[in-house]
Amino acid sequence: MLLPLWAQETDEASLAGARADTAFPAIPVDQRQYLLVFYGTFGDGAPADSASASGKKKNKARPSPPSTLEPMDPKTVILSEFKVSARLVGYSELRGTGVRLPNTGLSVTGSPQEAVDHMPPLLPVGEHRRDFTVIAHCDGRDRGVVFEPMGLDKLGLCLPREPEPERAKDSHEQLQQFGNWDYEEPEEQPFLLTPIGRAAVEMVWLGCLAMTSFGAM
User: Fold this and answer.
1) Which of 40, 57, 104, 150 is deepest in the core (most CB within 10 A)?
2) Is 25 exposed, middle or buried (0-12, 13-18, 19+ CB in 10 A)?
3) Per-residue CA distances from 205 to 84, 90, 108 (Å)
4) pLDDT score of 28
5) What are the distances in angstroms from CA 197 to CA 30, 43, 158, 193?
6) Distance (Å, rounded) from C-alpha 19 to C-alpha 66?
7) Cα 152 from Cα 146, distance rounded (Å)
8) Are 94 and 33 in contact (CB under 8 A)?
9) Distance CA 77, CA 41 (A)
């Protein structure tokens, strides 16, 4: 799956009378960035080291128990347990590969300015990051899909967090001086998705539904 990482439109209430075509600036083609998403089993290795492979490699059908409802298309891929990996891909890496690129951005919710201000940082020109990051996993259709906040944050899909208070280095002294009952563990800050992050997660989640299918397993 290849997702655009810029916003194209938002809900009417958030526009506050503005027009979507003026609220969201046009992104030059050579500055567009995408999220390459890979769905694979836990035993699978890293995806092919090329974004073009997504346009050339055909998915192989994995065996699954026969359904009594209807015959299954042999080309259908159904996974009951899988992980979702992703990485950032710039236009320069995809140019000339033959991969069909999304022409429109994501539909987000919330302030257009917030979506623009918190777009994932652009990769330096010519830099191709080959490492995939696990952003979600599914241990079974009945258990749902679990997203990995740290993976999403690594890809720039989360809002910046405030620096943690410098209390960890003083914890040992506090324990010695006051005892365990007087030491307060610093509260961990939650990971909050950006508007583009929320839209991307929704698309990834829909892909997970397609992987597990709605038929009998």
Assistant:
1) 40
2) exposed
3) 10, 23, 15
4) 93
5) 21, 27, 6, 5
6) 51
7) 12
8) no
9) 11
Tokens for 50? Answer: 């090329």
Task: Tell me what pLDDT residue 62 has.
Answer: 46
**Measured between alpha carbons, how far is residue 57 from residues 47, 54, 178 in Å?**
11, 6, 62
Record the tokens describing residue 116, joined without a space: 């623009």
CA–CA separation, 31 and 20 (whole Å): 20
pLDDT of 78-96, one tens digit each? 777 899 999 999 999 999 9
Report which of 4, 35, 6, 2 is spatially closest to residue 115, judged by C-alpha positions: 6
Burial classification of residue 92, based on how many CB atoms lie within 10 Å of its CB (0-12 exposed, 13-18 middle, 19 or more buried): middle
SS3 34: strand
Domain residue spans of the chain:
2-212
Task: Give pLDDT tens digits for 44-59.
Answer: 665 655 454 444 444 4
Tokens of 72: 């299954």
Least confident range of 62-66, 102-106, 202-206: 62-66
Kindly state the DSSP code that residue 94 receives in the 8-state scheme: H
How far is 158 from 195, CA to CA, in rounded Å? 9
